[in-house]
């Protein structure tokens, strides 16, 4: 992140494991206030899992998830 402004959404080395299967590994993301971002990817690439982790619906196995 190049700005000194704190991120509205930040992921640091996020891992999500579901049913002993690692679905997301070492995801890092920073979204600044007012910034627009799009989550794109092919089928079964982890888009919905990432959004479910944001919402607290899927457990985070490791890393940090900060919202605002």
Summarize the structure.
The protein is mainly β and 68 residues long. Helix content is 13%, strand content 40%.
The termini sit apart by 15 Å
- Which strand order spans the largest sheet, edge to edge or round the barrel? 2-1-3
Q: Radius of gyration in whole Å, from Cα?
A: 12 Å
**Count of beta strands:** 3
Q: Keywords, please?
A:
3-stranded antiparallel β-sheet; 68 residues; mainly beta; globular; single chain
How would you describe the overall organization of this protein?
- The chain is mainly β and 68 residues long.
- The chain has one helix at 47-55; strands at 9-18, 21-31, 62-67.
- The protein has a three-stranded antiparallel sheet, covered by helices on one side.
- A hairpin with a 2-residue loop joins strand 1 (9-18) and strand 2.
- The chain is globular.
Strand and helix map with partners:
Layout: E1 9-18, E2 21-31, H1 47-55, E3 62-67
Antiparallel strand pairs: 1-2, 1-3
């Amino acid at each position: 992140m190049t700005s000194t402004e704190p991120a509205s959404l930040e992921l640091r080395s996020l891992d999500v494991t579901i049913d002993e299967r690692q679905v997301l590994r070492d995801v890092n993301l920073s979204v600044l206030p007012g910034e627009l971002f799009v989550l794109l990817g092919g089928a079964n690439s982890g888009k919905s899992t990432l959004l479910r982790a944001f919402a607290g619906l899927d457990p985070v196995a490791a890393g940090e998830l900060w919202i605002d």
